[in-house]
Task: structure prediction
Amino acid sequence: MRLGDNGLTFENLVKRRRAYRSLEPVKITQDLIEETARVAQLAPSCFNKQPWRYVFVYDKTTLTKLQTEGLSKGNQWAKAASMIIAVFSRVDMDCVIGDRQYYLFDSGMATAIMILHLTDQGLVAHPIAGFDPVKVKELLEIPNEMHLITLIIVGKKSNTIPDFFKDYQKKSEVTRPERKSLNEFIYLNKYIEK
Result:
């Protein structure tokens, strides 16, 4: 199956997606934001509740404030981002069936589709966990009762690796980090302890 005008197969698009840290500036347009939101809009969710919410931060003043005040020390590389997307939701915005809460799963599916769309546009979309959720919510005026799930760092891949990167970061810019073997995470017909 071919995707878009670029002739990529879905498998090749997934393989091209990488969580690079070496970034250079890229122009963020309203069209890019709307196209990215539209693909998330089509994601499946429990009873079509669509619990995901996003703040697309690309205004230079707000972006700089978010980068300097909201990110952990380990994510200072993200100061080169052209946009940061805050992903958030709340448990009661989606199905709760017994002890199963679907809002994180459904928001994750929509966000994965967005990440693949941004990859298809030739961009890096790197989700991170290293941020101060209280400060980020304050800066972006996200209500306290919302669960800030992740931040997606968006930019164009740079071929120049900054000197301040740690050795493992430099290595992962050049070589894809090792993936678990299929044997480590799939089971056939029933779960058997390995």
User: Anything to note?
Assistant: DSSP finds six helices and nine strands in the chain.
